[in-house]
Amino acid sequence: MDTVIIGGGQAGLATSYFLSRAGVEHVVLERRAALGGAWQDRWDAFVLNTPNFSLDLPGMPYSGTEPEAFMARDRVVDYFRDYARRIAAPVRTGTDVTRLAASDGGFSVETSDGSWQARKVVLATGAYQVPKVPALAAALPEGVLQLHTHDYRNPEQLPDGAVLIVGTGQSGGQIAEELHAAGREVHLAVSACPEAPRRYRGHDIIYWILQAGIHGPEYGLNALTVEQLPSPAARFACNPLLSGADGGHDIHLRELGRQGMRLHGHLEAANDGVLTFTDDLPERLAAVESGFGQRMGRALDAYIAAAGIDAPEAEPVPADDWLPASSPRLDLAAENITSVLWATGYKLDLGFVDLPVLDAWSYPRQVRGVTEHPGLYVVGLPWLTGHYSSIVGGVGVDAEYVAGRVADR
Known about the structure:
Blueprint: E1 3-6, H1 10-21, E2 26-29, H2 73-86, E3 91-92, E4 97-103, E5 106-111, E6 114-118, E7 120-123, E8 130-131, E9 145-148, E10 162-166, H3 170-181, E11 186-189, E12 199-200, E13 203-204, H4 205-215, E14 242-243, E15 249-250, H5 253-258, E16 262-264, E17 267-271, E18 274-277, H6 281-294, H7 296-306, E19 329-331, E20 337-342, E21 346-347, E22 366-367, E23 370-371, E24 376-378, H8 395-408
Helix pairs in contact: 1-8, 4-7
């Protein structure tokens, strides 16, 4: 085979679209039994956090009647399966790649269903592969149910009692609202994920992120490009705290506290059923609330000004100094906490890549998706080239460039 694409999610399918247009023989290997990517791993009530208009896959932009609405999980999965059919992507499902190595000037691709020889390989496995759970999870009492959000499905899955959610990114925030609405007492260990407005200066925030990320460099603005990240570790920073549920809305941690959820600092230790949190909740909440305005908000404002876009001024953020009662210690039994949900994100798993191309974070060393190893490419990782690189509406930009390099080689 000329080219093997590893991964049949949005990145793999977008790359397949451009390779087909260029006449490049290729195959897409997908480890799951059916297409739909990591969206199939989300909980029952999951709703996409990006509006329908951003489902702008190459060759199939969104054409429905609800561009500002947000798709539920099963519709998202069907959307990608329909896309694969429309572009006639040469996909082989149920094919797990177990080793990728150099071979005779090309590559040997070993899978659960035989081996392939390829001249070129595109890694399109995405970033949501292995659930990340802190080591201190092993110190929690055996009687407490522990689930990563990857395995959470609905409130009925949990035993009666209160729930501790560790992490307040998009998954943690949305599941907290779901459990609270179901009548559960919810405790939240607050992480560093910034709050952000669902709508900003007349548009959904995702509209501006895509516009500024993709077109900002045309105006000399590179704030949302990978070159401007403060460190390589920032590639894995959590996304802004937002929700697509109930038509889309902001999530504010202080408001969740006012609704009755119990807020805590960062979880540091567990000993004999007693958890210890950092005693910095006021500072933590302040940092969460100011993060958007300090970086992303400024970048979006700069783009709007440079592009000469007539957009309404940003609405001022009302001052809010409310603070919940908080203690750095939490006795699970005394508070009747019977479940802990780890909303702690995912980590990359490219251990099957038997080539010296991964950095200390297991992220491929690359420039615009072209790795250091000739013939090996990557698409769809967060901050591959910019903030938009792993968003459905932005992945096509990198896929088109990489497919062009594959075709030229």
